[in-house]
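Table S2 (continued). Query chain:
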Amino acid sequence: MNNGTDMGQKTFTLETLEASGQRGRLVFLLGFILLAAGILITGWVYCRNYERQFRAGIEQQLTVIADWKAGDLAQYRLERLEDGSMFSKNASFAALVRRFLEKPEDTDAQRQLQTWIGKHRPYYDQVRLLDAQGVTRLSSHAALLPDVSASVAKGVSDVLRSGRVTIQDFYRSQQDQRIHLGVLAPIYDEQDARRPLGVFYLRIDPETHLYPMIERWPTASLTAETLLVRREGNEVVFLNELRFQTNTALNLRLPLDRVALPAAEAALGHEGFMEGVDYRGKRVLAVLRVIPDSPWSLVARMDAAEAYSPMKKQLWQVGLITGALLSSAAAWAGLVRRRLQVRLYRERTKTMEALRVSEER
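Corresponding output:
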């Protein structure tokens, strides 16, 4: 009877010990899983929040630059129109123009008109007084040809019909094959407001002031640039020289239906932040703006690789830290597991020894 009882006690004690060890291992494994999951979730949440905040920072930076550029361009156009209005709405100037056109040999009228022209020469590379047929009657340079480019001639007809000062948009001159734009100011007889006398034309060389204003970027960047575009039919036309291609102004044309092209989206009148593919086929981040009261649209863009480079470095560091924490947790778990196994082994040995002594007794 005693032997049977001792054997039953031995079996019960060993089973209890094994069950306790199994529960300890399960609790330990569950704790390790929860710890590892906590580390991974914390790292993932941090990365997602950091990525969201970083992207918002890039969007804000590009938005500020785009708004600044768009404001400068709108102000530039307004100032040029104000220059034209000084002539178009000036009765004294209109009387002087009528006097000169009726009597070209009037040297005093010619001298006074040259004085008016000289006041604006620092801002314009060429100034002309055109008659109602678009023929040059007086200019800032004596050697200028009497004819103007076809674009300007058409503009003369348009402004005389509308009676409003307008900006002659970017065009390529037939005389020098260079790109220009200008201001067309209609002049009407001060005695008969319906009788057109001619047009005062102030030509702008965009290389002097406009292109540098567009291309200037306020921060150091290897890929950022500003694009000025307009729509012509089913194409978007680039109006300024680009950073990564040469001879693009008025030459580079791309279809408006090109997928994810920021310049095309801007030419269609869309505004805001977008990710897309630029004229080089590179993935870019861009902010689009429409210049008020003009056919122009603006794109402030930067390569996504450059924009996200600091973020990727930070995420790599977070990944390394997360990996280090997981490795530390695994090492700690291994140490704890070994200690549990040693403890279980000692308890089992102690139990077996106690049972052996009990059996001998």
